[in-house]
């Protein structure tokens, strides 16, 4: 797919971290970008910076997501690129000792359900709505390509970290979604891929650096090469290649400096 001013894109979670870097990269290539996020202040500021559009969208709400897509399409036309970075997640060990009572405590089913809704279900919601719009658009090239969807997974989906049963399961569902969705959409000219990042210097991780520099240094040292956390612009660079390269389809691509995260 040729990247340029003729394209419109939607980036969820675009106000910060990997989503922000993706929005900046797409806008830098001339693409019209709509930023979906709940953070109105940061999202509006970014939209002004890139001459884009901010839509306050809650990915947990079907109505909110549909309204966001409608607003983005009214402003920029049918999106041909979706980059989905937003999520609602949860953590906790399946069973763990309560520090205050000493009792064995179970992570709640409700917390697990919320993570699945905020990762797996929200991913399907956003991707399927985008695909439906793309499928009705005119082909962009001789291959018949109409659009491309880039989802965000996590190395936690494969590396089995302690305390991430809900998060890992949600991101594992994203991985499992990619190939069947790509095949569902193959006759419509819509590609689907996922990026599987390792540890990146996003706002939550930078918070660790401020509050617990020794832990942050340990995270950096755990990466084989380069010995640092990933930069959001490196995620965005891979995202651009997934958009650009029409022959990439149905893939879950790790970008992690070679890390295979230990259990804890």
TrEMBL record:
Any matching Pfam family: adh_short_C2
Output the PROSITE patterns linked to this UniProt entry.
ADH_SHORT
Q: Which Gene3D superfamilies match?
A: NAD(P)-binding Rossmann-like Domain (3.40.50.720)
Which UniProt key words apply to this protein? Answer: Oxidoreductase
Q: Can you provide one Gene Ontology molecular function annotated for this UniProt record?
A: oxidoreductase activity
Which protein are we looking at?
SDR family oxidoreductase
């Amino acid at each position: 797919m040729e990247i340029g001013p003729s394209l419109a894109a939607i980036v969820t979670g675009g106000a910060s971290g990997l989503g922000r870097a993706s929005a900046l990269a797409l806008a830098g290539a001339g693409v019209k970008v709509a930023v979906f996020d709940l953070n109105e202040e940061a999202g509006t500021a970014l939209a002004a910076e890139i001459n884009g559009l901010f839509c306050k969208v809650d990915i947990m709400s079907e109505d909110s997501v549909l309204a966001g897509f409608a607003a983005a399409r009214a402003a920029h036309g049918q999106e041909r690129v979706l980059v989905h970075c937003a999520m609602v997640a949860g953590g906790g060990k399946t069973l763990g000792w309560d520090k205050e009572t000493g009792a064995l405590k179970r992570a709640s089913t409700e917390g697990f359900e919320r993570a699945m809704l905020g990762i797996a279900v929200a991913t399907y919601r956003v991707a399927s709505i985008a695909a439906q719009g793309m499928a009705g658009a005119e082909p962009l090239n001789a291959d018949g390509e109409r659009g491309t969807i880039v989802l965000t997974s996590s190395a936690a989906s494969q590396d089995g970290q302690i305390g991430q049963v809900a998060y890992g399961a949600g991101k594992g569902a994203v991985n499992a979604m990619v190939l069947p969705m790509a095949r569902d959409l193959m006759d419509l000219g819509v590609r689907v891929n996922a990026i599987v990042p390792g540890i990146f210097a996003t706002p939550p991780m930078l918070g660790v650096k401020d509050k617990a520099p020794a832990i942050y240094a340990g995270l950096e040292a755990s990466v084989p090469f380069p010995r640092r956390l990933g930069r959001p612009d490196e995620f965005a660079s891979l995202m651009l290649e997934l958009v650009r390269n029409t022959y990439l389809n149905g893939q879950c691509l790790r970008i992690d400096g070679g890390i295979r995260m230990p259990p804890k």
